[in-house]
Recover the amino acids of this structure.
């Protein structure tokens, strides 16, 4: 398409009622997007509102949720899992607790590890880079079911991990059967065995504050290690692409200015990776809040409900207990949580003008003022653009 | 991320398929039909679909052959589908308004399906109704209506490793008949990595001690009695011996279940059902064992029983043929054939003698039918039991009364 033609198109009248040679384009356009619209319609625009309806209805799983017999019950399903006071509430609270600890540990660790791996395999002097890239990416292309099964073997009571721990004279934990939380275990190690009354008196979602602070159980910790192991390869790829698109002359300029390797990474490379960082953190957050496969194929919530996650609880409520409304309500609360976290993280990672405190780091670095200019100006320029 | 998406897609597909049903064939009217009443079976010439949750090829083949034999005599076509995930596939069938006509249904799932009207209560129409063990009929009675015919059943008994038993200097006369006997033989059998008695740390095993002490979770009329003195006594007994090391949970000795611990000689005795025979011959063919009745507790003999029934869908277009098929499949002759093929015990009393003759080593399991308790089947009870199991995992250090008080309050919260 020529430049003049595309400029002519935005004129309102011609766009709405194309004539002459452009007449067929509108139809062709719709025709081209039709498959996607159909696919999105069938898998997104119909089911999502329908699931939303189920979360507000008393649908029992028999026949269509839109059949006449199904009634609107308002927020009853939501109330049931958030303020019901019964098992439904405490199970939901437990699942949120478990998943929150999972997110707190997995997201930062997988991001840091994948960034580290990406930096390592991007180095020009590394021999056999192709081998390492493949090796690190391999867990990501393996089926999560296969890896879960592998993990169950590795972390069984008499498994490889515990045998290695035994070489060092220690006794490994009973990984997938150990429901106690890491924080509780650490406190126990420090001699705190009875919780303070202030923490057991109150609570949220049927779980006492003491239990919220339990930390991931040992079993969940094994799954956390697995998540880091499997996903860091994928994110390494994203960081690698971003690192390779950085102009090498920037690093060279910094080198000329006398910046050491750490300063080059921290002051030159990392600021330019912010878009990739945003992508990785967003995908990490969403994925971590939706963890399901590992639970479904591996632990099914055991031991002691400490690997129960909202996604699995939602499945269980619907398919096993025939409480479809509760299941859909859990799914939508999860959806809101993910949206909230993504917005929060977007806000934290927003482009800010360089603060005076950080500016000072460049100006008082000890080098001649001119040395600081390239890096600082690069960042200021980035900061200025919205 | 792709792996996490599947969960959502899975849910999405079901809801989407429900949407397609709605758009494509809104005439099914699944949700509109009134709740089923006995005495009005549908009849047509439609073929039947039978969905089973099979334990393996042997079971699939046995059921397929039996259904094919019925088809050829009755003239109604019928196909057997072995589900990979029965609960999920059933849910999908009900949501789409086209469930299988007959299907395996666990006693823990009956409340959910009977409650939403998916299940046809045909129990009172069975010609062989009086032949079923009354305790099994009780398991499939919901709100006073006998819903579906018990397919077969299993009970829990004491399985003993005869080599370890002999090595410890014990004889047939030492087979425990009381809790004290059990504790003393378990102590004698505990040796190194071998514990005396190893079982799964869950209600479905520890419940036998509660039954022997005279306790129940729910009375037959639905009253919660979880924190009774009998139940406290039972859990305290188990706790004492978990502490002294003669009893152990399978998970704590590194086994997935009691049978595995038993097969690997991590436990000299275990509490399991008759399914253990299949696992032993397949995985641990060299281990010799014998099955004895569990010891009597303070309130006499007690054990738990587990059972499935042949559920019939309310939306099935050919219920009369389905009822005929159920009667055929639950006949004494057919159940004995199933028993030979894949091991469960017949649910009808008229097959008992023949079964005992065929399985002399397993008589103890069938003897349990006289005093076995079913697991609670009320709506929501399975969640309470799941929470109870969570608590039982920590029984060794927890207070039995506190655990049972929690179960009691959870049970009282059910309706």
């Amino acid at each position: 398409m020529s430049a003049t033609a595309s400029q002519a198109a935005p004129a309102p009248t011609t766009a709405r009622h194309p004539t002459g040679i452009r007449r067929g384009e509108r139809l062709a356009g719709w025709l081209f997007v039709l498959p996607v619209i159909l696919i999105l319609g069938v898998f997104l625009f119909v089911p999502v509102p329908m699931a939303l309806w189920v979360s507000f209805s008393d649908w029992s799983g028999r026949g269509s949720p839109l059949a006449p017999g199904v009634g609107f019950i308002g927020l009853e399903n939501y109330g049931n899992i958030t303020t019901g006071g019964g098992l439904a509430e405490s199970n939901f609270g437990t699942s949120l607790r478990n998943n929150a600890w999972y997110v707190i540990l997995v997201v930062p660790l997988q991001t840091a590890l994948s960034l580290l791996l990406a930096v390592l395999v991007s180095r020009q002097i590394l021999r056999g880079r192709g081998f390492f890239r493949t090796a690190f990416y391999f867990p990501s292309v393996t089926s999560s079911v296969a890896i879960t099964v592998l993990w169950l073997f590795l972390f069984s009571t008499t498994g490889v991990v515990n045998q290695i721990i035994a070489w060092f004279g220690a006794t490994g934990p009973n990984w997938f059967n150990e429901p106690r939380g890491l924080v509780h275990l650490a406190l126990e190690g420090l001699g705190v065995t009875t919780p303070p009354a202030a923490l057991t008196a109150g609570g949220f979602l049927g779980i006492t504050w003491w239990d919220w602070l339990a930390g991931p159980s040992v079993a969940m910790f094994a799954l956390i290690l697995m998540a880091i192991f499997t996903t860091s390869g994928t994110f390494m790829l994203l960081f690698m692409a971003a690192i390779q698109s950085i102009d090498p002359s920037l690093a060279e300029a910094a080198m000329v200015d006398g910046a050491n390797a750490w300063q080059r990474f921290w002051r030159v490379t990392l600021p330019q990776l912010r878009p990739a960082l945003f992508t990785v953190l967003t995908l990490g957050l969403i994925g971590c809040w939706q963890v399901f496969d590992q639970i479904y194929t591996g632990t099914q919530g055991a031991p002691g409900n400490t690997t129960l996650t909202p996604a699995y609880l939602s499945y269980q409520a619907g398919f096993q207990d025939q409480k479809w409304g509760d299941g859909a309500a859990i799914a939508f609360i999860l959806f809101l949580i993910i949206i909230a976290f993504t917005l929060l993280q977007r806000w934290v990672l927003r482009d800010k003008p360089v603060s005076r405190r950080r500016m000072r780091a460049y100006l008082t670095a000890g080098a001649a003022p001119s040395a600081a200019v390239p890096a600082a100006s690069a960042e200021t320029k980035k900061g200025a653009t919205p | 991320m792709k792996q996490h998406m599947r969960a959502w897609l899975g849910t999405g597909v079901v809801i989407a398929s429900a949407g397609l049903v709605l758009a494509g064939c809104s005439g099914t009217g699944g949700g509109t039909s009134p709740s089923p009443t006995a005495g009005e079976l549908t009849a047509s010439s439609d073929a039947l679909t039978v969905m089973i949750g099979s334990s393996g090829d042997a079971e699939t083949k046995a059921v397929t052959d039996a259904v094919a034999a019925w088809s050829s005599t009755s003239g109604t076509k019928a196909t057997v589908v072995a589900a990979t995930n029965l609960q999920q596939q059933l849910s999908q069938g009900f949501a789409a308004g086209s469930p299988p006509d007959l299907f395996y249904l666990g006693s823990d799932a009956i409340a959910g399906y009977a409650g939403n009207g998916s299940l046809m209560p045909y129990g009172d129409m069975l010609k062989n109704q009086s032949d079923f063990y009354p305790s099994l009929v009780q398991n499939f009675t919901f709100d006073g209506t006998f819903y579906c015919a018990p397919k077969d059943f299993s009970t829990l008994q004491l399985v003993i490793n005869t080599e370890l038993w002999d090595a410890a200097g014990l004889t047939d006369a030492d087979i425990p008949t009381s809790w004290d006997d059990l504790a003393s033989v378990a102590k004698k059998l505990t040796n190194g990595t071998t514990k005396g008695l190893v079982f799964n740390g869950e209600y479905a095993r520890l419940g036998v001690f509660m039954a022997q002490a005279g306790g129940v979770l729910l009375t037959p009329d639905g009253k919660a009695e979880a924190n009774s003195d009998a139940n406290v006594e039972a859990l305290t007994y188990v706790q004492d011996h978990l502490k002294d090391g003669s009893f152990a949970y399978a998970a704590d000795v590194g086994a997935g279940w009691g049978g595995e611990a038993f097969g690997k000689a991590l436990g000299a005795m275990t509490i399991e059902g008759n399914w253990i025979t299949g696992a032993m011959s397949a995985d641990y063919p060299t281990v010799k064992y014998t099955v004895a009745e569990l010891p009597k507790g303070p309130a006499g003999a007690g054990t738990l029983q587990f059972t499935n029934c042949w559920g019939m869908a309310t939306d099935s277009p050919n219920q009369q043929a389905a009822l005929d098929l159920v009667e055929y499949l639950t006949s004494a002759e057919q159940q004995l054939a199933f028993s030979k093929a894949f091991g469960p015990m017949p649910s009808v009393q008229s097959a008992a003698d023949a079964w005992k003759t065929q399985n002399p080593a397993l008589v103890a399991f069938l003897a349990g039918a006289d005093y076995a308790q079913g697991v609670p089947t009320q709506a929501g009870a399975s969640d309470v039991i799941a929470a109870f199991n969570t608590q039982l995992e920590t029984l060794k250090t927890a207070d039995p009364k506190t655990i049972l008080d929690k179960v009691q309050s959870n049970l009282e919260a059910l309706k």
